[in-house]
Amino acid sequence: MVKNLVWTLVVVAGLFLANPSKGALGWTWDECQQHWGKPLLSETDSDGLFTANFEAQGLSIMVCLTDGKVVRVAYKPPHHEFTKGEIVTLQKANAISPSATWIFTRKDESTENYEWQLREDPNKTDFIAIAIFIVKMNAFVVATEADNQRAKNASTQKASGL
Fold first, then answer.
1. Per-residue pLDDT tens over the stretch 27-86
2. Does residue 3 have a pLDDT over 50?
3. Between β-strands 114-119 and 59-66, what pairing exists: parallel, antiparallel or unpaired?
4. Residue 119 lies in a domain
5. Which of 39, 87, 88, 107 has its CA 20 to 30 A from that of 138?
6. Is 13 inside a domain boundary?
7. Residue 10 has pLDDT above 50, yes or no
8. Are 143 and 71 in contact, with CB atoms under 8 Å apart?
9. Residue from 33, 47, 26, 32 nearest 145 by CA
10. Rounded CA separation 36/62 (Å)
11. Domain region containing 132
């Protein structure tokens, strides 16, 4: 009886420590509102990308949705610098596959930005999401590989029209 109670408390404590409410990749619009409340601003751009801004849990949060799912999210703490622990927590919360691992891929020396890829197999270069800590803006951004590719394609198309 006592072992069952202790085990239950350990599981509940683990759920609170994992803080899944900071996640976002893969969430629906309803899940975003359930976790973060009413958005401060929301709009759909000319390409059909739905974007919303929230303030919750001491963070400014911007999400982008495609086909009803969050494909990109940016976090910015307005009153403090991100700590390594907070970045790790956000990575864990946005690991859209339970078998995937965040792999540090590079630090850009010119911008000082850090980049990670979420990979199913850490020994391969295929990734399912990307994360970037933008040092000068103190912002942490995660995006699915599909959204990352969509953004690259969009910027290439806009540049070709110049």
1. 999 999 999 999 999 999 988 899 999 999 999 999 999 999 999 999 999 999 999 999
2. no
3. unpaired
4. yes
5. 39
6. no
7. no
8. yes
9. 26
10. 11
11. 23-160
How many structural domains compose the chain?
Answer: 1
- How does pLDDT run across 124-162, given as a tens digit for each residue? 999 999 999 999 999 999 999 999 888 888 878 777 766
At 129, the amino acid letter reads A
Structure tokens at 34: 């359930």
d(CA 82, CA 21): 18
- Whole-angstrom distance, CA of residue 6 vs CA of residue 35: 28
What's the DSSP call for residue 106?
A: E
In the numeric block, which tokens belong to residue 102? 């965040």
Kindly state the tokens that stand for 155: 């910027």
> 116 lies in a domain?
yes
Q: Which amino acid is present at 60?
A: S
Q: Would you say 38 and 61 are in contact if contact means Cβ atoms under 8 Å apart? A: no
Please name the amino acid found at residue 71. Answer: V
Q: Tell me the DSSP string of 25-88.
A: TT--HHHHHHHH-S-SEEEE-TTS-EEEEEEETTEEEEEEEETTEEEEEEEE-SSSPPPHHHHH
pTM: 0.81
Query: CA 136, CA 62: separation in Å to the nearest integer?
Result: 18
